[in-house]
Design goal:
mainly beta, 40 strands, elongated, 15-stranded parallel β-sheet
Length: 294
């Protein structure tokens, strides 16, 4: 039939979608299985609305489309898929206690949990949030744009890959309680507020331009490299229990320092930096900023 509704079921073996033509099967209940195979030319498997589907094996796509709906898809294996996935508003969670190779597709929400290395490959688009939990680690393998939030949880590691043309853009907020390593010379852009939480580590191993359009709060360990760091919008706040040390800082949007800020090489910019009461500003090099209010 052209449309088909499939309720909840549990299967320890393979679940296959083999519908062909312009036909759609929709999960209306939660489904548990081993491998997930999409192999129906022209057919679509829709994961449905607000459901949770758990597959302990691999996700294989030969033909047809998997539509994420608004559901959670949990994968315990790996995938070589590079097409045939429509993210919709759903979430895909790679949750194995061990290494996994991810499908190289565009995601909405992407969660990396469990443990081991999660190989991202050439994933370039996450339309929602990227969340790391457990002790998972991942390294970008291409330019990566995250439209939602980046959450680097306790015990996890997220690293930008070594190729210098690979940029990172986070439109939402960035929360670091694990380790975020910014390698390569590609620009890193953070539109939302950035928080390095207690125990969190922000480590720049590459010399790159770092752009902030929100607040920066450091309650953990923040290590900046010598690339130019720019605060570019009105009302930015630098704060936190621990020092923010940035060798080269440019202020192009009005910014307030509420904590301890150290600029060892150059403080510049055509806007204003205001020192809040009890804030500390250490300047070890030149200052060419238009307005400094201490």
């Amino acid at each position: 039939t052209a449309t088909q509704s499939i309720g909840s079921f549990t299967n320890s073996g393979t679940v296959s979608m083999i519908k062909t033509g312009s036909t759609t099967a929709t999960f209306t209940g939660n489904v548990t299985g081993g491998d997930l195979i999409i192999n129906g030319s022209g057919g679509t498997l829709n994961l449905g609305t607000a459901r949770t589907h758990t597959f302990t094996g691999n996700w294989t796509r030969t033909a047809g489309t998997l539509n994420g709906g608004s559901s959670l898809l949990q994968i315990g294996g790996s995938s070589t898929a590079t097409a045939g996935f429509t993210a919709s508003t759903g979430t895909v969670e790679w949750n194995a206690a061990g290494d996994q190779t991810l499908a190289v597709v565009s995601y909405n929400n992407l969660t990396l949990s469990g443990s081991g290395t999660k190989t991202l490959g050439a994933i370039t688009t996450i339309g929602g949030n990227l969340t790391l939990s457990g002790t998972a680690s991942a390294t970008t393998g291409a330019i990566l744009a995250i439209t939602g939030n980046l959450v680097v949880g306790t015990g996890t590691t997220f690293t930008t890959g070594a190729t210098n043309t690979w940029t990172l853009t986070v439109t939402g907020t960035t929360s670091v309680t694990g380790t975020l390593t910014l390698a390569n010379t590609g620009a890193k852009t953070f539109t939302g507020n950035v928080t390095v939480n207690p125990g969190g580590v922000w480590n720049e191993t590459g010399i790159a331009a770092i752009g902030y359009s929100g607040n920066l709060q450091n309650d953990g360990t923040y290590t900046a490299n010598t690339g130019v760091h720019t605060f570019s919008t009105t009302g930015n706040i630098i704060s936190g229990a621990n020092e923010v040390a940035i060798p080269n800082l440019t202020i192009s949007g009005t910014t307030t320092n509420n904590g301890t800020l150290t600029v060892s090489t150059a403080l510049s910019g055509a806007s204003s930096l205001t020192q809040a009461v009890h804030a500390t500003l250490n300047i070890g090099g030149t200052s060419g900023i238009t307005t400094l209010t201490a």
